[in-house]
Amino acid sequence: MEKRLLRTSELLGIPFIVFAGSLLHFTYQMSGGNPVVAVFSAVNESLWEHLKLAFWPATILAAAQYFRLRKAYPALLLGKTVGILSMPLIIVAGFYGYTLFIPHNLAADIGLFIASVIAGQAISYRIISKTGGESPKAWHSATGLALVAMAALFAVFTFNPPQIELFRDPVTGGFGPHLH
Question: What distance in Å separates the CA atoms of residue 144 and residue 154, rounded to the nearest whole number?
């Protein structure tokens, strides 16, 4: 029963993350520039800001799964963390990889976003379902800390982005929050 629930929640997590992430692309603008909403939403068109679109919905899904499945799957936090952190890595690597060969385009970006979510969920499922036995407490602390650190980076860099290409809005050429 628990195995089926894990598999189902990981599979249904894909459309949830894609849909919720797609909504987060617009929520900052719709909020009129609310700084709290900015932490969770894309505040400009930079690659960095688009990483939030996978991270936050996947983290919300992971929290729900954690409360329901943590006893049956001691490695759940480890698997979810690796899966969640793989999504932004895949997006960054995929974006800079594909733009070496073809011009930047929206269809490729959307496909990359969906592919990163599918891969992240698959990685998560694989780790959770294949890791037997007790997960060392150190892993729980380290994985929880990794998620908190990534969330903190999203909050800090939303308002104080480093002046490097990853954080540059290709539409305005600027950095940080921008209302269209």
Answer: 16
